[in-house]
TrEMBL record:
This is Uncharacterized protein. PANTHER family: IOJAP SUPERFAMILY ORTHOLOG (PTHR21043), PROTEIN IOJAP, CHLOROPLASTIC (PTHR21043:SF2). InterPro entries: Iojap/RsfS/C7orf30 (IPR004394), NT_sf (IPR043519). It comes from Chlamydomonas reinhardtii (Chlamydomonas smithii). Pfam families: RsfS. Belongs to the Iojap/RsfS family. Residues 187-211 are annotated as: Disordered.
């Protein structure tokens, strides 16, 4: 059995003997390598083929210590309402192209993905902090992973997982197309954004690795 190296770059490019599936795509690396192995084996055993369009590249493996999509401890609020609330917070921080995907019918490990684009490291950190604060104070939710400050970060709440990408990372991994079978949730808000063509022409910031 092939060994699994912990790290985003390694997990994005599995060896030929370990095939990444749509089940092992989202979240951050847990505190122990045993959790990585256990979750990867559990998820890989469920559904072997990807959902939606065929993909030649896969997003970073996001492994947590849990194996289900149960909501983290918190207030009595539906997963959908919580996902929309998370989307509203990142929208308020001026993240762009905010999307909520209902993936419950196609995966077993979570119910909703919230996806948004950030254009700077400070914006990323602000969005993560505000979502975490609102989740805890308003909804009694706690994250089950430890986000960092890379060009792709997540906040995993079990039933809802937030993904924040730089424009380049989001285009590369294109998880909306990867989950083509998921239904997009209509959001009751939306900023005045320039057309996609104008957004793509904006100069992308340099992503510093310094904290």
């Amino acid at each position: 059995m092939a060994s699994l190296t912990v790290g985003k770059s390694a997990l994005c490019r599995p060896t030929t003997s370990f095939r990444s599936t749509h089940q092992t795509l989202f979240g951050l690396v847990p505190s122990s390598s045993s959790n990585v192995y256990a979750r990867s084996q559990h998820l890989a055993s469920e559904i072997r083929e990807p959902i939606g369009a065929s993909r030649s590249r896969r997003p970073t493996v996001s492994l947590t210590a849990t194996t289900g999509k149960e909501a983290s401890n918190g207030a009595d609020i539906s997963s959908k309402d919580f996902a929309v609330a998370v989307a509203k917070v990142v929208d308020d921080v001026k993240c762009t192209d905010v999307v909520v995907l209902d993936v419950a019918p196609v995966v077993s490990w979570t119910s909703f993905l919230v996806v948004a684009t950030v254009f700077s490291k400070p914006q990323l950190l602000a969005a993560l902090a505000r979502v975490e604060k609102a989740a805890a104070e308003t909804y009694g939710r706690t994250k089950i992973n430890l986000p960092g400050s890379s060009p792709w970060e997540t906040l995993d709440f079990g039933d809802v997982v937030l993904h924040l990408f730089t424009a380049e990372q989001r285009e590369y991994y294109d998880i909306e197309s990867f989950y083509a079978a998921a239904e997009e949730v209509e959001l009751p808000f939306g900023p005045d954004m320039p057309p996609p063509q104008q957004q793509s022409q904006q100069q992308s910031p340099t992503w510093s690795t310094k904290s």
